[in-house]
Automatic annotation (TrEMBL):
Protein's name in the database: CoA-transferase
GO molecular function, one term: CoA-transferase activity
Matches recorded under InterPro entries: CoA_trans_fam_I, NagB/RpiA_transferase-like
Family: Belongs to the 3-oxoacid CoA-transferase subunit B family.
A Pfam family assignment: CoA_trans
Top-rank taxon, per record: Bacteria
Species this chain originates from: Streptomyces purpureus
Length: 240
């Protein structure tokens, strides 16, 4: 039986399909397993990072040195595809990882803006959100950290602005709509449209026949279970 977390790994992997030779930067276990699965299966030209200063091979061993200044050069040159997280995200892909509540007196302090603005305006960005809920998928983010389609357009900064997909524990979302607002692209098997609608704090674009997220192949399942995540960390991140 295929678990929800395994569908999530496959959906994350698909974010890097046809990217060519770029640095796949993931920031959570499931998205990291997705990047490594992509390289082992259909995206052999991907570069993988340990998240600090090394390029790593399929076995996780260092293959090259990537000092931070070079990493930033790849970011500003568009040669990295990062899969970030989001404490909040809205219908146009604006992301918040900074604070909850009014900026002048926030109820919660989070990570801070970090590199989200530069990421979203210079290299491809996708998102992995392990808990799809109205608290995360909001009508309006409390602060913009990562730039969404509407704000990029208003600033005239769309030339290198590329938001790919948003993968959650319920399905896959994208921005393939006329106004670049969020659309339900696929459901993970076992999830219903009504579940996604109830877990989203704004009106998603939902077609009449939403497909299911693709099944992992037998070889992909073997890689996930025996090579990439034999300890089952994916099931700790995606709890059904």
């Amino acid at each position: 039986m295929i678990s929800r977390s395994e569908y999530c790994v496959v959906a994350c992997a698909e974010a890097w399909r046809d990217n060519g030779e770029v640095l796949a930067a993931a920031m959570a276990p499931v998205s990291t397993f997705g990047a490594r699965l992509a390289k082992r299966s259909f995206a052999p030209d991907l570069l993988l990072t340990d998240g600090e200063a090394m390029l790593v091979g399929l076995d996780g061993e260092p293959e090259g040195w990537l000092p931070y200044r070079r990493h930033l050069t790849m970011v500003t040159g568009g040669k990295r595809h990062v899969m970030m997280g989001a404490s909040q995200i809205d219908r146009h892909g604006n992301q918040n990882i900074s604070c909850i509540g009014d900026w002048s007196r926030p109820a919660r302090q989070l990570l801070g803006v970090r590199g989200a603005p530069v990421n979203t305006l210079n290299n491809p960005v996708s998102y992995w959100i392990p808990k799809h809920s109205p608290r995360v998928f909001v009508e309006r983010v409390d602060m913009v950290s990562g730039v969404g389609h509407d704000r990029a357009a208003a600033a005239g900064a769309t030339r290198f602005h590329r938001l790919g997909r948003v993968v959650s524990d319920l399905g896959v979302l994208d921005f393939e709509t006329p106004d670049r607002s969020m659309r339900l692209a696929s459901l993970h098997p076992g999830v219903t449209v009504d579940q996604v609608r109830a877990a989203t704090g704004f009106d998603l674009v939902i077609g009449e026949n939403v497909p299911y997220t693709r099944e992992p192949t037998g070889e992909e399942l073997r890689l996930i279970r025996e090579v990439l995540d034999p300890e089952g960390l994916r099931d700790r991140e995606v709890r059904v």
